[in-house]
Design brief:
By secondary structure, the protein is mainly alpha-helical. The protein has helices at about 5-10, 10-35, 40-74. It is elongated, with a radius of gyration of 16 Å. This is DUF3188 domain-containing protein.
C-alpha cells in the first residue's frame, strides 16, 4: 500500500505537497538572491515563505496519515 500511495493519494494531499515544495523553493531562491546581493530586506522577506512551506508540509503529513488510517480501518 505505501509503495502505491502517490497513485491513490487524495488530491488534497498532492496539492499540499506541491504547494509546500513550491513555497520552500521560492523562499530559498529569494533568500539566496537577497544574501548574495546584499539585500537584507529580501532575505528577511523570504523567511515567512519558507515557514509557510514547512507548515504546509506538516499539514500534508496529517492529511496523509488520515488517509492511511482511513484505508486501514476498512
Amino acid at each position: 500500500m505505501l509503495n502505491e500511495f502517490w497513485a491513490t493519494a487524495p488530491t488534497r494531499y498532492k496539492v499540499l505537497v506541491f504547494s509546500a515544495m513550491g513555497m520552500i523553493g521560492v523562499g530559498i531562491i529569494l533568500n539566496l538572491i537577497g544574501n548574495t546581493g546584499g539585500n537584507q530586506t529580501l532575505a528577511m522577506a523570504s523567511l515567512p515563505l519558507i515557514g509557510l512551506g514547512l507548515v504546509l508540509h506538516v499539514v500534508g503529513l496529517v492529511v496523509r496519515g488520515q488517509a492511511i488510517r482511513k484505508t486501514l480501518k476498512r
